[in-house]
Amino acid sequence: MNNEILEGLRKAIKEYDNEKAENLAKRAVEEKLDPLRVLDAMTVAIREVGDAFGRGDLWLPDLVGAADAMQAAMPIIEEEIKRTGAKRESLGTVVAGTVFGDIHSIGKTMVCTLLTAEGFKVHDLGVNIKAEEFLQAIRNYNADILAMSALMTMTAPEQKKVIEQLKKEGLRDKIKIMVGGGAITEEFAKEIGADGYDPTAPGAVKLARKLIGR
Amino acid sequence: MAKGFMRRFPPLKILTDEQVEAIHRGTLDVLQETGVLVYNEKALSVFKKAGCDVDFETKRVKFPPGLVEECLRKCPSSFRVKARNPKDDLLIGQDNVLFFNFPGTDTVDLDTWEPRPPTKKEHIDLIRVLDALPNVHFLNAYPYFGFSGGIPEVMKEIEGVALRIRNSTKVTIAIANNDIDMFTIRMARAAGSEIFANPNTSSPLTCYTDQVNACFLAAEYDLPSMIWDGATSGGTAPASLAGAVVLSNAELMPYIVLLQLLKPGARVAVANLVLPQNMTNGAPAFGEIGVSLHNVAFNQVWREYGVPTVSSSCGPTSSKRIDFQLGYQKMMPTLLSALSGSSILQLYSSIYGEITAHPIQAILDDDIAGMIGRFLEGLEVSDESLAIDLINEVGPIPGHYLGKKHTRKWWKKEQFVPKAADRLTYPEWVKTGKKSCIDYAKERMEEILSTHKVDPPLTRSQEEEIERILKEAREYYRKKGMITDVEWESYKKIIGG
Ligand code: B12
After folding, report:
1. Does A109 share its domain with A70?
2. What are the residues facing A148 on neighbouring strands?
3. Do residue A36 and residue A80 come from a single domain?
C-alpha cells in the first residue's frame, strides 16, 4: 500500500501530472506515511528527470513540467513535516529574482526550476525586483542563498547595489550570493563581491551546492 | 525619399480568411477576459476614461473589443517619417519594403569568432558603413551597446544616439529604458530629424512603466512608434504558432489603443520578434523555421488591420560564425517575410542572436537585401520585354543577343549583381587569390570607410545643441545616482570634462 503511493508519486512527477501528484500527497498524509520518506521519493524522481535533461533525453518543457508536478505536492508534504515536527533535510533556502529595471525572465526561471528539482527551497520573486524587495525576502525567509539574474549591461550594476545594501544592513555575511544572466561575467561577479557566477542553469545548481558546502 | 523596394505582386498567404478571423477573435477574447498588467498610472487613467475595465490596485486592464477595433481603424495604413536629409525620408506601407539593422552587444573577432566589446572607432565604423549602404533605409537603436572604455551604462545608448546623428543622416530609434528617450528624442529633433518611439511589450501580457511612457512621449512629440513584441513560443508564449500570434497581438494592442487614444491617427508599425524557444537551453531558436511561419501568419493578420509590420525576428541567427548556417538562417526568414507583406525587414549586421554584429556582415547582408528587393519588384511583361521582334530578328544559331541594344538596356534591369559574392570561374578565382565573399566584403568595407562622408554633416549650432542635451543627461543621471562617483571620474576623461 505505502509503496504503491510512493511509486505513484514518482510516476506522477515523471509523467508531469500535477493533479495526480497532489492527490497522492494527500493520500500519503491520510495513510500517515513518513513525510520525509515521501519527500525522498519525490526528490529521486525529479533528479532522474533532471539527469535525463542533462543527457539530452528530455527537454526543457519536461523538466519544468516535472518540477511543477512536484510543486503541486510539496505544500501538502511540507505541512505534514511541520505538523509532525520531523526534521526536513532541505538543501537550503534560496531567494531569487531578476534585478530592478530588467524584465528578462526565462533564464532566471530555469535556474529556479533546477534548484527546486535539486532539493532547494526556492522563493522566486520574479522580475524587476528592487534591492529593498530582495532584502525583505531574505529576512522573511531566512535565506541561505541569494540568486540574482541580469540580462542587460544597463541593469547589471543593480546586482552591485543589492550587495552594497546587504552590507549596509549587516546581512552580507549571513548569506551566499550567486549571480548570472547574459550580461554577467566572471570578472564582473568578482568585482561586485558576489560569491559565485555561472553561465548556465545546471552550473548554477552545482554552484549553489558548493556555496553552502553540500 | 529613401528608395525602398516595391512589392509588385500579391503577398503570400498562409491562412484562410476564417483562420485570420479566428486569430482576431482570440485576441479580442484574451484582451477582454484576462487583459494585461499595466504598470503605469497615467495609462491606467487613460484606459479607464476610454471605457476599459481597470483595477488600479492590481494594475489589470481589460479591453472592450469595440475599443480595440476602433483604435485599429484609426491607425494609418501608410505614413512618412522625416529624416534630416530628405533623401532619407521614409515611406512606410503601400507595398514599399525597407531594411534596417540589428543591434549587437559585441563585435566579433573574425579569426577566432569570439565576441568582445567594440572600440569607439569600431562603433563609429559600423554606423558609417550602415550610413553608406543604400539599402539600409534607417538605423536601429545602438548598433552596439556603447563601446569599451569607461562610459557609464545608462549613458551608453544616449552617447550612441549622438554618434549616430553625427555619423549618419538616417532616421533612428529611441529605446525606452530608464527614460533615456527623454533625451534622445530631443537630440534627433535638434538635428532636424524624427526618431521612432519604441515601446516594447513584455511577455506574457505585461506592460512596464518606461515602455508605456514611450507612448506618451510619442504623442507629446508627435513621433511615429514601432512597438516590439518578443515573446518566445514555448517559453513566454504558447508553443503553438497560432497561439503565439494571438498572444503577441494581445500584447501589442494595449499600446495601439493607448497611442490612438492619446493622438488619433498616430503613426505606428508593429514589430515581430517572436521566436521559438530552444528546448535544450532556453535560448531563442534564432533562424529556425518557426520564425518564418509566425512572421507570415502575423503579416497576414496585420494586413487585415491595415497596420504596417516589421519583421524583426528574421535577422539574427544561431551561428557564431559567418558561415553556411548563417546564410540560410538569414535568407530564408527574410525572404518569406518579404514575400508575405512586411513593410520593414530587420536584417543587417547581426551574427549570433542580437549578441554580435559586424560591418562585414552588414555588407554581406546588403547582397541579401538586394536580391530580395529585386525579387519583390517582379518582372515586367510588355511588348518590349517580350522581345518578339528581337527574337524573330536574331533567329537560330549563329544568332546571339550579346551585342544588341535591347540586351544592354535589359540585363541591368533584370539582374541583380551582388557586390560581395564570389562570381568567378575557377581559373579566375585561382588567379585572384581564391577570395571568398568575406574577403570581398572586407574590401568593400575598407573602400566605404576611406571614402564615405556623412551628407550633410551637423551644423555648428546643431552640434552645440546635442552637446547641451548630452550634458543635461549626464547631470540628470548623476543626480539620480545612476552614474557613481567612480564612474564619473573615468567618464570625465573620455568626454574631456
Ligand atoms: C527574449 C529576450 C527578450 C524578451 C524577454 C522575455 C522574457 N519574458 O524574458 C523581451 C522581448 C521582452 C525583451 C525585452 C528587452 N530586451 Co531583450 N533579449 C531577449 C534575448 C533575445 C534572449 C534572452 C533569453 O531569454 N536568453 C535565454 C536564457 C535562457 O538565457 P539567460 O537568461 O542568460 O540564462 C541562462 C544563463 O545566463 C544562466 N542564468 C540566468 N540567470 C542566472 C542567475 C544565476 C544566479 C546563475 C548562476 C545563472 C543564471 O542560466 C540560463 C540558462 O543556462 C536577448 C538576446 C540573446 N540572444 O540573449 C535579448 C537582450 C538580453 N535584450 C536586450 C534588450 C536591450 C532588451 C530591451 C531593452 C529592448 C528594448 N529595445 O527596449 C527590452 C528590455 C526591457 C527591460 N526593461 O528589461 C539586450 C541587452 C543588451 C545589453 N547589453 O544590455 C539583448 C542582449 C538583445 C540585444 N542585443 O538587443 N528581450
Report:
1. no
2. A97, A179
3. yes
Q: Looking at chain B, which residues constitute the CATH 3.20.20.480 domain(s)? A: 5-14+72-376
B237/B165 Cα distance (integer angstroms): 36
Task: Indicate if A18 and A103 belong to the same structural domain.
Answer: no
pLDDT mean over B483-487: 90
Q: Does B116 touch chain A (CB under 8 A)?
A: no
Choose among B132, B128, B200, B119: nearest CA to B167. Answer: B128
CATH number of A41's domain? 1.10.1240.10
Report how far residue A44's alpha carbon sits from residue A56's, in angstroms, rounded to the nearest whole number: 18
Where is the domain boundary, A84, A115, A148?
A84
Among residues A62, A57, A55, A70, the alpha carbon closest in space to that of A12 is found at: A70
**What integer is the mean pLDDT of B188-198?**
96
- Contact residues for B25 (Cβ-Cβ < 8 A; gap 6+): none
Q: How much distance in Å is there from the Cα of B204 to the middle of ligand 1? A: 15
Q: What is the CATH number of domain B5-14+72-376?
A: 3.20.20.480
- Residue A123 forms beta bridges with which residues? A95
Beta strands B195-198; B172-175: pairing state: parallel
Q: Which pLDDT value is given to residue B145?
A: 79
The dihedral built from the CA positions of residue B10, B13, B19 and B20, taken in this order, carries a sign that is negative
How far apart CA B223 and CA A33 sit, in angstroms, is: 66
Do A35 and A106 belong to one domain? no
Question: Does residue B281's CB lie within 6 angstroms of at least one atom of ligand 1?
Answer: yes
Mark whether A71 and A123 lie in a shared domain.
no
A119 is in which domain, residue-wise? 93-211
The answer to whether the Cα torsion of B347, B348, B351, B355 is positive or negative is negative
Distance CA B168, CA B162 (A): 10
pLDDT digits (tens, 9 = 90+) for B358-394: 999 999 999 999 999 999 999 999 999 999 999 999 9
Residue bearing cell 568585482: A191
The residue whose grid cell reads 522563493 is A123
What residues of A are in the B interface, CB distance below 8 Å?
A: 56, 59-61, 101, 103, 105-107, 110, 128, 152-154, 156-157, 182-183, 200-201
Given A84, A111, A128, which residue is the final one in a domain? A84
Q: What is the rounded CA–CA span in Å between residue B82 and residue B423? A: 38
CB B79 within 8 A of CB B96: no
CB–CB of B68/B30 below 8 Å? no
Report the number of distinct structural domains present in chain A: 2
| Judgement on whether residues A65 and A104 belong to the same structural domain of the protein | no
pLDDT of residue A163: 97
Q: How far apart are CA B449 and CA B467, in angstroms?
A: 25
pLDDT tens string B277-334: 999 999 999 999 999 999 999 999 999 999 999 999 999 999 999 999 999 999 999 9
Amino acid at site B416: F
Does A20 lie in the same domain as A109? no
Give B121 Cα–ligand 1 centroid separation in angstroms. 26
Do A136 and A44 reside in the same domain of the chain?
no
Cell numbers describing residue B204: 506574457
